Amino acid sequence: MPERTALVTGGAGGLGRSLVEELIRAGWRVVVPLERAGDLDERDGLATVVADLTDPDDVSRTLRAAVAVQDAPLKALVNLVGGFAAGQPVAETPLQDFERMFALNLRPTYLMTQAALPRLAGGGGAIVCVGSSAALHPFAGGAGYAASKAAVMAFARAVAEEGRADGVRCNAIVPTQIDTPANRAAMPASEHHKLVPPERIARVVVFLCDDASAAITGAAVPV
Q: Residue 132: which region, alpha, beta or left (left: phi > 0; alpha: psi -120 to 50)?
């Protein structure tokens, strides 16, 4: 039976499914909040809960599911959930479209981290957030996405500083484009070689969750 639990948001997505498999293979119990029941089938080592991670009450319920097994305490939170939308130039972007990127990319990460920190602080652990190369190299029409991902990366660094005394580490991965069906469909076939296989990124995330990376916190890791 697994002796530690990882809570993975966005676990039914392209990267999330690969991460869930890698974590289970590494001996973790994994809890995944889902938008809809059935998005991911439960099995040994994997539990799911339907939740809206923009809602504080649902976030609390998700955390209760993550800490339900006393013999497998919560040791990692991975904030994969988020979204992308190509926009218009800033002068033409409605405020609600700009703010929507923060609601998708920052609000769930903030709420889940805030809820998990007291549990992790008791025995140490790891938090992994997802930035984006767009936060470092913004593109025209992507101000909302780039700014929200930059905010996630700054948030991760702040949490790393706050968590040091309690042995809680927080890092961010900084992916380019991930090899998912949606990304393949959105770009020419001649560019598919630039996409990064999700299982490669998943292995980096598992490392950042594990005690083997205990010396790393506050990092933005390109993948």
A: beta
CA 33, chain centre distance (Å): 12
Cβ-contact 56, 113 below 8 angstroms? no
- The Cα–Cα gap between 218 and 169 comes to 7
Cβ-contact 201, 173 below 8 angstroms: yes
145 in active site: yes
Q: Are 108 and 151 in contact (CB under 8 A)?
A: no
Catalytic residue among 28, 84, 110, 145: 145
Ramachandran region, residue 38 (left: φ > 0; alpha: ψ -120 to 50; beta: rest): left
Could you report how far apart the first and last alpha carbons of the chain are, in Å? 31
Q: What structural domains does the chain harbor? A: 5-222 (3.40.50.720)
Reported confidence tier of residue 179, pLDDT bands at 50, 70, 90: confident
Which residues does 87 contact at the CB level (< 8 Å), separation at least 6? 93, 97, 98, 141, 142, 143, 144, 145
CA dist., res. 18 & res. 180, Å (int): 11
Count of residues making up the chain: 223
Q: What are phi and psi of 15, to 5 degrees?
A: -75, -40
Give the tens place of pLDDT for each residue, 7-64. 999 999 989 999 999 999 999 999 999 999 989 999 999 999 999 999 999 999 999 9
Asked whether 168 and 121 are in contact (CB, 8 A), the reply is yes
